[in-house]
Records
---
Amino acid sequence: MTGEDVIILLPLVIVAAAAVAAMLAIAVRRSHAATAGIALTGLAAALAEVLVNLWLKKGYVGHLAVMDNQALFVIGLVLAANLVVGILSYGYLSRRRERAEEYYVLLLLAALGGMVLAISIHFATFFLGLEVLSVSLYGLVAYERGRLGVEASLKYLVLGGTASAFVFFGMGLVYFDRGSMIFFWVDWLYGQYGPGPLGLVAMVGCVMMFVGIGFKLAVVPFHLWTADVYQGAPAPVTALVATVSKGAVLALVLRMARGSPWAGYYFGDRAVYYSGGVCPSAPVFWILAAIAVASMFTGNLLALRQRNVKRLLAYSSISHLGYLLVAVLVSGAAGATAAGFYLVTYFAATLAAFGVVTALSGANGEAESLEDYRGLAWRRPALAALMTVAMLSLAGIPLTAGFVGKFYLLTAGAGAGLWALVIILVANSGIGLFYYLRVVWAMFERRATEEKELPRIGVATGVVLAGLGAAVVLIGVWPGPLAELVRAWMGGGW
Amino acid sequence: MLELLWLVPLAPLGGFLILAVARARLGRRAVATVGVGSAGVALAAAGAVAAGFFALPAAGRVYEQNLGTWISAGDLAARFVLHLDALALVMMAVVTLVGFLILLYSAESMAGDEGYARFFCYMNLFVASMLVLVLAGDLLLLYLGWEGVGLCSYLLIGFWYREPANARAAKKAFIVTRVGDAALLVGLLVLFTQMGTSDIGGLLARAAERWPTGSSVATLAALLLLAGAVGKSAQLPLQVWLPDAMAGPTPVSALIHAATMVTAGVYLLSRMHGLFALAPAAATVTAVIGAATLLLAGTSALVQRDLKRVLAYSTMSQVGYMFVALGVGAWGAAIFHFVTHAVFKSLLFLAAGAVIAALGEEHDLFKMGGLRQRLPLVFWTFLAGAASLAALPLVTAGFYSKEEILAAAWAGPAGGRWLWAAGAVGAAVTALYTGRMVFLVFFGTAKREPSQQPGWAMATVLVILAALSVSGWWLDPRWLLGGTEIAATLPVRLAGTAAALAGIVLAWYFYLRRPALAARVAQSRAGAALGRWWIGGWGFDWLYNFIFVRPYVWLTQLGRDELLDGPFRTLGRTLDLAHAGMSWTVTGRVRWYAAALAAGAIAAIAVAVWR
C-alpha cells in the first residue's frame, strides 16, 4: 500500500482513526460529550475530506477498491447519514441510564463498513465491508440491553450470520467458475465467452450471493427480520439500519450491476450494455424482478393496519427497497442515476421520520405507538410538521423529495421498457398512501386529555431536524441541482 | 411617471401580504393604516401614471409594462404584462379612487368588528385582483384577476361566516358565477387555439384579419365571453346570486357588488369590443339580455323591503343599461355609465350603511322614516346619489350617462325602438323605486331614533362621492376613449328625460302624498300577487332550485351511495384481507424466519438451475 493509496482512502482512514481515538479516550476518562465530540468531529472531517477528494485524488487501490465519483457520492451519503444519526443519538442517549460512550465507537465502525462497501470492487472488500457493518449493528441494536433489544439483536445475528454464509459460499462458487474475485474481471472473462448463458456453478453462486444481499436489503422473502429489529433497536440505530446499512449494500449492487444487461438481455438490442455486471443472465433478471414485485406488495400490505410506527416504517422500507430494485433492473447510467436520486430522498425522509421518533422518545420508553402521535400537531407543531413532510415524501406526494425520486424511478423504468414493474410501482404508491396518511391523520386529531410530558429537544437536534425537513421540501420543489449532481456522480466515471 | 404602473396593483397586494402574515400581531390602528394606506399608495401611483399618460402624444396613448413571463409553453407565452390605454386608465382611476374612499369609510364603519384585520386583508386582495383584471394586457392575466375578484367576493360575502345563511349566500354567489367563469375559460381557450396568442391587442388584430364579420367562430367566442360577463355582472340568466350577496358587510356591497366587480363583465366586453363588432348576433344578444335584466331587476326593486336588496336589484338594473349600450355598439356610453354608477351606487350603499348602523342593523324600509332631520348629512348625500340614480335632469351625473345610453339605443348603429322603449320604461321604474326608497327612509314619521352619527372619515367619503354624483357631465370619459358621437333627435332625448321625471312624480304621489293609496295597491289581489312574484326576483330562485339544484343533489346522493363507492370499498376490503392474510407470516420466531430465508434461497436457485 503506497502513500498515494492512503490519500485516496483518506475518508476511511479518518473515520477509522476516530474510532481508535474514541476507544482510547474512553479508556482514559468516561465522558459522553467528549466521546460524542470525537466521533462527530471524525465524521464531519471525513465528510469534508470527501469534498476535497472530489478534486484531489481518485483512483484504484490495488485490486481491492476504487475511489471514483460513485464511491465518493455513496461515501458522502453514508457519512452524512451517520452524522445525523450521531447528533440525534446524543440527545437520545443523554436521556437514558445506559453508559453511552462505546455507542460512538460502534457508530464509527458502522460508517467504516458502509464506506468499504461503497469502494469495493473485489469480493474480499465486499465481505469485509459487509461484516464490519453487520457486526457493529449487532452491537448497536442490543445497546439498550432491554428484552426487546437483545432479542432483536440475536435474531439479527443468527439470520445475518446465515446470510453471510450464503454470500461467502456464493463468492466461492463464482470464483471456482471464473477464477477471479474482481467484479469487472469476472465480467471481462464472461465477455470472452460471448453473450451466452452462464455456467451452472457460476449461476448458483450468483443467486446465493443475492440471497445474502437480499437479506441485508430486507427484500421478500428475506425480509421477516425487519420489523422485529426495527422495533427492538433504539430509535437512532433503527434509522441507521434503515439508511446506511441498506444504502451501502444497494450501492454495491449497483456497482456490480454497472452497465448490467439484466434488462437488456430481454428487452431489445441492448448489446452495448454487455460490458459489465457480475451476473449477467436472464434468470437473475427474473428473480430480481419477482423479488421487487413481492417486496413492494408485501411491504405495503403489511404496513397497512400497523399501529406501531417503528414497525410501520420497517414494512414501508421493504416496499421502498422494492422500488429501488426497479432502478437496479434498469441497466446503465439511467438506472444508477435514478437509484442514486431515490436513495437521497429515501435517506432524507427516513432520517426525518426516525428523527421525530428519536426526539419524542424519553427516558421511559420509545414513542412508537400510533397513540403517542395522536394530537401531536397541537402540542409540538414543528415536530408534527416535520413528520408530515417525511410521511408525504415517503408516500411520494408532489412538492416533496419522495415524489421527484419516484418520478425518476418511473422515468428510468419506462425508458427501459419495464412497463409491468412501473405499473405495479404506481399501484403500490397508492396503497402506501393509506398508512402514511394515517400517521398524519393521527397527529392532527385532537385528544381530550393532556398526556405525559414530552422530552425537550436540544439545539443540535433541532437544527438537524429542521435541515432534514428543509431538504425534503427543497428537493421536492427545486430538484434540478440535485438531479444534476447525481447524474454527474452516479452516472459513472471519474 | 408611467414606470410606476406596476405599483398600482402591487401596492394593495403588498398590503394583503402584510395583513395576511402579520394580522394577529398588528393593532387596529396599524391594520387600518396598512389596509387604507396601500389603497392610498395605489391611488397616488395611479395619479402619477395618469399624469404620465396625458404627457404622451395624443395619437398613440398606449403604454405597456412587462413584468416577466408567466407561462411559456410551445407557441403560447403568457406574460405578466400591464397594458395602459384610455379604457384601462378610466377603469384604474375609478377602481383606485372608489376603492380608496370605501376603505377609508370602512376604517371607521368596521371598527367594532372582531374580524377587522381579516376584512382589510380580503379587501386589499380584492383591490389588487381588480386592478390586475383591468390592467392586464394578456387574457390569461385578465383571467387571473377575474378569478381573484371572484374569490374575494366569496370570502367577503361570507365574511360573517358564523351565520349559516351568509355562508350559503357566499357559496351561491361563487357557484353561480362559476358557471359563467367556466364559459369564459372555454371562450379564452377557443381564442388561444384559433389565434395562437393570448396577448389582447395582438389577438384582436388577428381576429379582425382572419374572421369575416358574422363568422360562426367569432360568434361562438363572443357568446362564450358574454356568458362569463353575464355571470360576473349578474345579468339574466345568472343574476340570482346578487341579492343574496348583500349578506356581506355594506362596504363590500358598495365596492364589490356595486362599483367594481359586477361591472367587470362590462369591462371585459368593452375590452373585447372589436370581437363583438365581428359578431353582430352576439351583440344583439347582449343588448336583449341587458334590456330584459334592467326591467326584471327594476320591477323587483320596486317591492323589496330590505334597503340593501333594493340597491342590489338597482345595481343589476343599471348594469343592464350598460349591457344595452354594449349591445348597440356604444361601449363608450357603457363606460360612462359605469363611471357614474360606480360613484352614485357606492355612495348610496355607504349612506345606506350609515342608516342601517344608526338604526341598529335595521334593514327594513318600512321600519325607517323621518330621518331627514335626524341624520342630515346622510340624508343630503343619499339624496344626491338617489337623484343621480333617478337621472334627475341637468345636474346629476347619472342623467347624462343614462341619456347617452337611451340615445344610443334609439339611434346607435345597432339600436332599436324596442330597446329604447325598454330603457325608457326602466328609467321611469328606476325613478319610482328610488323615490320610494328616499321617501320611506327619510320622510314621513320617525319610527326609531338613530343611535349614532357618522364620524369624520365616513362623512368625508360621503361628501366627496355626493359632490361627484351631482357633477353633471363632468365625469364623461368619452373624449378620452374616442368612438362615434351619437346624434339622437331632441324629441327622443326629451322623452327619455320625461320618463325619469314621471317616475319621480309618481313616487312622490304614492309614497309621500298618498301613502294609503300605495298600500291599497299593494294589498289588492293583483298587487299582492305581483308583489310576491317580484320580491323573489321573478321566481328564478324557485325555478333554478327545481331545474338544477334538486336533480343535482339527487344525482350526487345516488352516486354517493351506489355508483362510485362500490369498487373503492371492494378494493379497500381486498387490501384489508390481503393485509390479514400476510400478517401471519411475521411470527417473531427465528426458526420460521430462517426457514423462509432457506425456502427463498431454494426457490431462487431452482429458477436459476431450470432457467
---
Amino acid sequence: MGKSQVRNNIRKLRFHHNEMTQEQLAEKVGVTRQTIIAIESAKYSPSLELAFRIAFVFGVPLEEVFSFEDKNFMNTKE
Amino acid sequence: MSYQEKNTTVSLITYILILGFYLVNLFQMYREEGLVSTRLFSLWAIVIIAAILVNIFASILTNIVLSIVHAIKTKTNESERFIADERDKLIELKGVKASYITFSIGVLLAMLTFVFGQPPLVMFSLIIFFSIAAEIIGDISQIYLYRRGF
C-alpha cells in the first residue's frame, strides 16, 4: 500500500494553532501519535469520523483539512 | 515504537521461542524413536497450552514493564495511554488476514502428506507447526505495517 490520495494540511494547521504538537492533537482526537504521523505523511487515510474530529479541533471545515487528489478518477468524471 | 508495536514484538518473540521448542523436541523425538503418539500428544498439549499462557503472561508483563519505564521516564504517576485506535485495529486485521492465509496454506500442505502415504501424526504435527508459524507471520506483517506507517 503506497501513499494515499487524500492530502492534508494538518501540519500547517497545527503550526497556526500555537504550534500544536502531534501528541496534543492525538490526545484531542483520541488516537495515538503514530496515527497522526501516518495521516500527516499521507500514508494512512483516516476514517470519516476521525477526519471530522481533526477538522473540529482546528475549527475549520473538513475541506480545509483534507483534499482528494486522484487524476485518473477526475478524468473519468469529465 | 508504540505500545501496540512493543506488544506485537513481545508476542512475536514468544511464538518464535515456542516454535523453536516444538521443532527441537519434534526432531529429537523423530531421531530417537520416530513419531510416538503418546509422546507426541503430550508435546502438542505442552505447545498449545504454552502458546496460550505464555502469550497472556507476556502481554501482562509487557504492560507492567512499559508502565514502570514510562513512570521512570516522565517521573509522574500518569500512566501511558495504551489505546488501540482505528489504525491499530486495521493493522491487527491485516495481521489476522496474513495469519489466516498462512494457516490455510499450511493445512493444505499438511493434507498433502496423506497423498505421499505419511501417517496422520505427520499431518497433525504439520498443522501444529503451521498454526504457530501463522501467528509469527501475522506478527511480522503487523510489525512491518507499523514500521511503514500503514
---
Amino acid sequence: MIDLSFLKDSKDLSLYIHIPYCTKKCDYCDFYSIACTEPNEQLDRFFINLINEIQYITKLYRKPFITVYIGGGNPGLLTPSQLDHLTSAIFFHGRPQECSIEMNPESITAERLRILKNRVSRLSIGVQSLKEENLKMLGRNSSREATLNGLHILDSFRDSFDLNIDLINNVPGQLPSDTLEDIDLIEQLLSPDHLSVYDLIVEEGTPLYSSILKDQSFEIDSNGNLDIETADISNFLKKYGYSKYEVSSYAKIGKQCVHNKHYWEMRPYIGIGPSAASTLFHPTGVIRMKCKNNVQSYSENRETFTNTLYTVEEVSANELLEEIFIMGIRTVKGVDLSYIERLFSCNMVSLIPDTLKRYKKQTDLEVVDDRFICATDTGMLKLNTILIDMFIELESIELSFLGGT
Amino acid sequence: MSKDISKIRNFCIIAHIDHGKSTLADRFIERAKIVEARKIQTQMLDSMDIERERGITIKSQAVTIPYTGLDGQVFELNLVDTPGHVDFSYEVSRAISSCEGALLLIDASQGVEAQTLANMYMALEFNLEVIPVINKIDLPSADIEMVKRQIDHDLGLDPDIAALVSAKTGVGVDDLLEMITEYIPHPKGKRENPLQALIFDSHYDAYRGVVIHIRVFEGTLRKGDEILLLHSNATYIVEEIGFFQMGLVQTPDLSAGDVGYIIAGIKVISDIRVGDTVTETKNPCKAPLSGFKDVKPVVYSSIYPIDSNDYEELQTAIDKLRLNDASLVYEKDSSAALGFGFRCGFLGLLHLEVVQERIEREFGLSIIFTSPSVQYNLLLKTGEKIEIDNPLEFPDPMKIEESEEPYIQAQLITPTDYMGNIISLCIEKRGVQVAMNYIDERRVELIYEMPLAEVLFDFYDRLKSVSRGYASFDYDLLGHRKTDLVRLDIMVNSSIVDALSQLVFRDNAVYRARQICKKLRGEIPKQQFKIAIQGSIGNTIISRETISAYRKDVTAKCYGGDISRKRKLLEKQKEGKKRMKMVGNVEVPQSAFLAVLKGEDED
C-alpha cells in the first residue's frame, strides 16, 4: 500500500473524484471512460471501492477539503442514493469552499437535483453544442431536444446552484456563428455563472481523429488543433458580463471555479478513481500519483491505494517549476512568482531573461506588479511556443525544493 | 616449412548480382571443413551485417581453403569473393588482380547478364583463366542448353568446359574444386626473390589496429621483417602475419603465391593505400607492382552529422572506413544549415548508400547526405576551365561560357516484354539509343547514351519497377558532353538553404524545384508567421509553396489529470525544437532536410 500518512500534516488539499462511466463514449473523447447503461452492477461494485478510498483519505486528512470536483465520464449516471452516499463520505469532516459535479444534460432529473441541491454548490453541464450537425460530428449521445429537456428541468433548480455550461468550439464543418448562437440561447434559458468554451482537441487514437484523417479536408496540428476560422468568443461574452480568466474559461463576477484555479496555481490535490491523478506535497518534495485506467481491477480491489492500482513518481524541482508555468500561464492573472520563490527560493525573472525579453518585445508576455508573469491576448494564442522557449532556457538551471507549500 | 607453389591456386568468383556467388563460396568453405558445422551460417564471407541483410557482397573477402584432390595431392585454394554490383567494379578489379583464375558464375535460368559481361572482360584484361560455371541447375526454370549457347555466342568461351552446379544443394561442387586445381594455373614467382606484395585490401580491427590484406607475388615475408610501403614510403616492423580462414590464422611466413595478412602496429592510417606495393627495407624490389585500375569517383555528396557535436566522431569514422574502402575520397566541407561535414566522392549510388549504412551501424552515428551530384566541367568566359561537383562552388552564370556533364553508355538487358517501358524511361532520362540487339528470342540488349546525372536520380528504382526487376543494367563512362547547367536554390522566407542547392539540367529544374518545395511544405511546422518556400534559378522564382501562420499554439484544456502528459508532450516538442536549424527566421526541423535529401516520392 502506498504510504500517504504525510497527508495528516498537509493542508489546502483539494479532492477530485473520477466516475469513469458514460452512456456512450463520444468520438472525440480522450478521457478514461467506459460505456454503461443504468442501473449497472459493475458501477455499483466500483462505487463500493470508491467510497472505501474516500473514507481512507478523510481519516488521514481529518479536515474539510478546500474544494471538491466530481467529474467523469458522467457522474450523472450515479443513482440518487449513490450521490447521497458519495457526498456524505466526502463531507465527513466538513464542507469544502466549493463542490462541483459534472453531468450530461440527458442525465438531469429532478430526483437527482433534489439530492444534490443542498450538497453540491456548482453544477457543470456538458452541453457541448445545441446544433444537431455538430453533436453528430462529435459523436455525442445526445440531441438538441434531449439537451434542451435537461436544461428545462434544471431551470426550476437554477437558484440552488452556481452553473457552468461546457461548449465545444472549432468543430469540423461548423460555422463561426454556431457557438455564438448557442451562447445566446443558453443565456436566455439559464443565464449561467460560468462558461467553458473549448476549442476541440482532436486527440490521436480517437474515432474522430481517424475520420478526419480519412476525410482530409482538415489539417490537424501537433497539438490536435484544427485550422478553422473561429469567432471572437471572449469579446462576445463581455456583453453578458463574463470575463475570461483562463484559456477557455469565462466567469461572471465572483463566479470563477475555485477548484480549477487550485489546479492552475499548482496547489495540492488528490484524485480518486480510475485514471485520476494527484499532486501531493510531502515534507521533502512532490509526488504525482496516478490510478490505472482500469475500472475492472479498480472494482475488484478490496484494499485502498495499492501499488498494483496506483503508480507514484517523484516530480523533480525542475519538473514542478515547468508544471507551475504550464498551468499558471493559462490564467489571465498569470504565474505567481512569489509562490515559486517560496518553493525554490529563486528569482524567476532572472532565470529566463531571454524568453521574457523576446516575448515582452512582441507584447506576448507581461510582468505585472513584479509578481506575476502573464500572457497577453496575443500571447494566449501561442502559450506552447512560449513555454518551449522558456523550458529550453531553464534547462541549464538546477533547482531544489525548500520544502513546504 | 617450405610450401610448394605449384599446389597453390588463387581464384575469384565473378558474377552478376544474385547469381549465387556467396552461396557457392559457402559450399567451398563447408567442403574444406575449416568451419565447424554448428558455426556455419549463410554468406560466411560476408562479414558485414549489411551484406547479409541485403544479400549482397560489398567488400572483397579472402579465405584460404585446404583441399585434397582426387589423386591425394593437397592444395591450398585462396578464394577471393567479389561484389557483383556495378558500383563495386573497383573492388572486383582488386580481387581479380590478386588471382590467376576466375569462376564466371551464370544463373541457369537468368543466363548472361550485363554484369556478367563486364566482369568477364575485366578478368580477361588481367589474363585470368576463366571457368564458366552454370549455377542453380536444380531450379525447374533452369535452361542449361540456352546458357551454354550464350557462353559460346555472347562470351566466346568454350561451353564444353562449363561446370554444372547447384551451390544451394551442393551438386557438382566437388567436381568444380577438382577443375580449379586442373584448369587454373599456379602462381609464378620465387620465394628467394626480393619481396613484392600487393595490398589489395585492409581493415581496422578494434583490438589489433590496421590489418593489411596482401597477395605475395615474389619473395618471402617473415615476422620481425622491416617492410617498406613503396607509395607512401613508410616503414614498419611486421608483428604478425597469417592466412585468412574464418578469422586470422597466424603463420611463420608468407611467400610468393600466398594470400594473407600483415599486422604491423600501423598508427598512421593514411600510410596504407590499397594498390600499394609492400617490399622489404633491406632488400627492396626494383619496381612497384601494377595492375590496379585507377578509379575516379563519379558521384559526389556531402555528409554531415545530424548532431553537429559529432563532427570529430564522423572524421574518425570516415578515416577508418577509408582503410578498407580505398574508393572513398573525401575532404572537409561546411554548410550554414548543417554545420561541418565532408564532401565525399563515391563510385555510385549504391556505394553511397553502403557508406551511409556503415557509418551509422559500425560507428553509431546519425548522418545526413546532401543531394548526389556528378562532376561538371565548366568553361569560363575568361577561358579558364574548372571542374565542379559542389553546387556551392557554382560560379555566376554570367561568367560561364559553356558547361559539360558526364555521359555514360548504358547497357540494359531485358526480357522483350519490358522493352517498351525501358525505352520510355531512357528517353525521359535524356537517353539516345545507340543499338538494340536480340540476344535470343526472349531477351534484348539495349545500348543507350545518357547523362550520368539522370541515373543518379531515381533511375535504378524506376528501372526495377518498370521491368519488375528483370532488367539488368551496367554502364561505362563516356566522358563529358555539352549541357545546359543551372544551379537550383531553395529558399525559405528568402534565405537560401545551402544544403538543398543542386546542379541540374535546366529543363529538369522546374519539376525538381516543385517536388522539393512540396516536400518541405509538408515537413516544416506552422510558425508564428507565414512562410514562403521557393525554388529559384538566380533571381527567377520557378516554384512556390506557402505555409500559413498558425492561428493558435495552445492546448484548449488542461486540468489536474493532464499535467504530466502535457509536460512530457512539451518536453518532446522541446527536444524537436532544439534539433531545428534556423534558416533566416524560420525553424526548419532536421527531418525536413532528411525528407528532401532522401527524396522519396509519394506520388
---
Amino acid sequence: MSSTGQGYAAPPLAAPGAGAKSETWLWIAQRASAALLALCVVVHLITIIYAVRHGLSGEAILARTRGNAVGLAFYTLYVLAIAVHAPIGLRTLCQEWLGWRSASLNWFTAALALALFAFGLRAGWAVFSG
Amino acid sequence: MDMLKVSVWRGAALGGYRTYEVPRQESQSVLDVVTYIQRNIDPTLSYRFACRVGMCGACAMTVNGVARWTCRTHVAKVAKGNAIQIAPLANLPVVKDLVADMSEFFDKWARARGQFVPCATRKDAFAQVASDSPGRVAANAGIECIGCGVCYASCDVVSWNADYLGPAALNRAWTLVNDVRDGARRERLAAVAGDAGCHACHTHLSCSERCPKDIEPTAAIAGLKRAVALAAWKGEL
C-alpha cells in the first residue's frame, strides 16, 4: 500500500455471497436428497439382489411389480431424489472443472433434472402398468 | 561436507526453477537454506520472513509441493535424498521468486466479513462469556489463526474457483459467528453463503491436514454450512 493510499481499493464490506439464498437452498436440497438416496439405494440394491439370487424371470418380476402401488410410490420417490441430487452435483462439477458459470448452466441443470425425472417415472410406470 | 541440491522458483508467473548447492547442516530449517542462498550465492533472491520462530506466518512457501512454514520445517524432515524444491505459495499471484501476493487472500477475509462488529455501547456492561460456553469453545478452536495462507494454498476448491473465500477467511467468519458480542451475524452468514462461500467446500480436509497451528477450518466451514442452512430455513438469509 502506498503512503497516499492510492493503488489499493478496499473490498466492499457487506457484499453478500453471489446467489447466497439460491445456492444455500440448492445445498439443502442436495443434502436432503442424499439422505433419501442413502435409504432408497439400499432398498433398490436389496431388491435387485433378491431378484437375481432367486433366479426370477422378467415375467416373474413384472408379476410382482404390476399394480404394486407401494413399489410405484417408492420408485417415484427414488427417481425424485435422483432428479434433485444428480443435476446439482453435476452443476458444481461443470462450474469447477469446466469453468461453466453462465446462466446457461442453470438451464442445462433444470433440463437434466426434468429429463431424469421424466425417464425415471416412465420406467417406474412401465413396470407398474406392465 | 554434504551438499543439498536446492531447486528454487525464480521469476514471477513466468519463470523457472534454478538449482543451488547449499551446505547441509544439523537442525537446518528450510528458511535457513533460503537465507543461505540469498546471503552467500544470489542476493537477488526475494523471499519473505519475519519472526523465524513460527509466530508470524510470513515465511510460508511450497516445499516439495506442500505448503509449509519454512522456519518450522527441518530439512531432514522434507529432503528427498539431498534434494529440495522450494516455490512460492500456490493459489496466489507471484510477486517475485518466493514472494506471493497475499492481498487477495486478505481481501477475502474482509469479503467474508471477518471484521468484528461491536453491538454494545460504552454504557453497557462488559459481556460475560463463560469459557466453557459452546460459542466460546467453537470460537476458541479457530481463533489462533495467524493468516499465513498455508490452508489457502493447499485448498483444491480455491484452485478451481478463484472467487472461493477459502479456509482461513471462512474460519475467521465462524469464530465471529460464535462471538456473542458481535452484531453482524446475519450479514456475515449472507456473505459466506453462495457459490464462493462455505457451500463450495468439498471437505477434502487439506486445510486441516496442513494448518501449522492444527486448526480445523473444515470443521469451521461445516459449522457455517449448518448455520447458513438454518438461517435460510428461518428466512433470515
